[in-house]
Amino acid sequence: MPMRFAGILIAACLFVSSLMAARGAEPKMDPGAPGRILHVLNRLAFGPSIDDFRRVEAIGIERWIVEQLDPAAIVEPIELRFHLAQLDTLDLDAIQLRQLYGPLRPVLGLKPTPEEKKAQAQRARLVVEQAQAARVYRAVLSRRQLQQVMVDFWFNHFNVFDKKGLDRVWIGNFEERAIRPYALGRFRDLLFAVAKHPAMLVYLDNTLNSVPRAHGSERGLNENFGREVMELHTLGVDGGYTQADVITLARVFTGWTVDPPDPKNAPAAAAVFVGARHDFSPKVFLGQPLHATGKAEGEEALDRLAKSPATARHIAFELAQYFVADMPPPPLVDRLAARFVATGGDIRAVLKTLFASPEFWASAGQKYKTPYEFVISAARASGIPLNNPRPLIAAMTELGMPLYGCQTPDGYKNTEAAWLSPDAMVRRVSFAVGLARGGLRLNGAAEAGLEAALPPPPPAPAKVAELDEMFGSTLTTRTRETVAAVPPGLRAALIIGSPDFMRR
After folding, report:
1. Residue 418, exposed/middle/buried by CB under 10 A (0-12, 13-18, 19+)?
2. Does residue 74 have a pLDDT over 70?
3. I need a surface site. Which of 33, 224, 230, 372 has the fewest CB within 10 A?
4. Quick one: which of 180, 187, 204 has its CA closest to 271?
């Protein structure tokens, strides 16, 4: 490590350590208009970029929120559209992804060699790399910031792990086809799309779920999918269901599986219903009989779950926790749940109620950024051109939150207790120093998961004047004094690496 860089990092770490020691000693400030703008951009967006900050300042907070709630009417920047156009796997459906990047099958009776299998596995990594790149490009560059925030929220709510079976080639398609189109729509539609996607069926083992056979040729019921649909996706752990309901829902979802690849005929869909694996016997679910049969039986159960008041409360709590506070005010949760029920699960309507609430506006600084939020917000604030998202993706992994890498179905935590520690702070400061000095090479060209053949351009450092315009009046007195006292080359790193910046 160059001596100058080491000196900057040591100084920044000492600065953060001193602020952590004094944390809570400084009274809250009245942030005024810049603080309100910063608050809304920290919650409805992944922090401010200078363009978004100036736009909210120009048109007003209320109008900007109205725009964000209608993302289809917002024109995306040409830079973002260019980057996404280079990621060709985004346009493939689940069948095409499996055929092109899934496991190799015997051809004319000849099994693939170990070398061929290894080469195919390397090719398959391209799909995850491009999905990660698309997520980061959108999060940093998109003008539809609330949509990107809600995609992150819902993906985490319906978490899928990229190293579970064929999910290595389906995870990007899951986000594009099952999450993104419904992120601001109706919860019922979102739930249906998620439950029917092959990535979720594989991840939660419903491909193993079948009506038991007397001769023992089938493995029988697998409760994993049904349990998580109720415990995590809809009702919540305290949602009033019983173990009998878990078993019943597992029986309901028998036959919901993934169509095996056919070397002769390409199937029409990756996720299918196989009647021979389904339990057609009568069922009582959540105290009421199910009237449909076959595949429609599962849809009736999902519809019942989507309309449950317990689901409304579970989703309301998670939204309030994400946008307001780790322990959200119960009256706010009650109002959001009531709005969810009254509108039939209209996510946009629930968010309108949330963003208009006094609890939301009184919560500035009460949320601590996850590693994903910190990295994305730092990239947006720095203003450094983003041609290569891979350093940002690597930073998320280094900070303990690999993109698409949460193994458990409950997703990553978004609370302060999960992420705040001295070691994590030092790692964040190290990232901030590298980013602010242009040392991460974000402006080097790298598309489609391939390293560029051309040498990278010179580093593009963060612009201190723009950071001061966005954050200057909202930083604590201690942070402002420390930033003012250091050489100009360190100021951007101290702003991005400060505890102030790490809070939402």
Report:
1. middle
2. yes
3. 33
4. 204
Q: Which two tokens stand for residue 434?
A: 């590298």
Which DSSP symbol is given to 71? G
Mean model confidence pLDDT for the chain:
89
* Cα separation, 199 vs 166, whole angstroms: 7
Q: What is the DSSP string of 76-106?
A: PPHHHHHHHHT-GGGG--HHHHHHHHS----
SS (H, E, C) 236-276: CCCCCCCHHHHHHHHHHCCCEEECCCCCCCCCCCCEEECHH
Which residues make Cβ contacts (< 8 Å) with residue 264, sequence separation at least 6? none
Per residue in 343-362, pLDDT tens?
999 999 999 999 999 999 99
Encoding tokens for residue 66? 């109205």
Confirm if 146 and 68 have CB atoms less than 8 A apart. yes
In angstroms, the CA 59 to CA 288 distance is 51
> Rounded to the nearest 5°, which phi and psi values hold at 261?
-65, 140
* Residue whose entry in the numeric block shows the structure tokens 């450092």: 461
Q: For the chain, state the CA radius of gyration.
A: 24
The neighbour count for residue 332, using CB atoms within 10 Å, is 23
Please give the full DSSP string across 302-368, using - where no structure is assigned.
Answer: HHHHHH-HHHHHHHHHHHHHHHT-SS--HHHHHHHHHHHHHTTSBHHHHHHHHHTSHHHHT-TT-SB
Q: Mind listing the pLDDT tens digit for each residue in 189-216? A: 999 999 999 999 999 999 999 998 754 4
Q: What integer pLDDT is reported at residue 460 of this predicted model? A: 65
Length, in residues, of the chain: 504
Task: Give the max Cα distance, the chain.
Answer: 79
C-alpha 124, offset from chain centre: 22
Structure letter (DSSP) for residue 107: B
Closest CA to 477 of 14, 12, 48, 25: 25
Please write the tens of the pLDDT for every residue from 227-261. 999 999 999 999 999 999 999 999 999 999 998 87
> Would you say 180 and 151 are in contact if contact means Cβ atoms under 8 Å apart?
yes
Q: Which amino acid belongs to residue 110?
A: L
Q: Is the pTM of this model over 0.85?
A: yes
What is the average per-residue pLDDT within 309-316? 98
Distance CA 375, CA 319 (A): 22
Note the helical H segments in 362-412. 371-382, 390-398
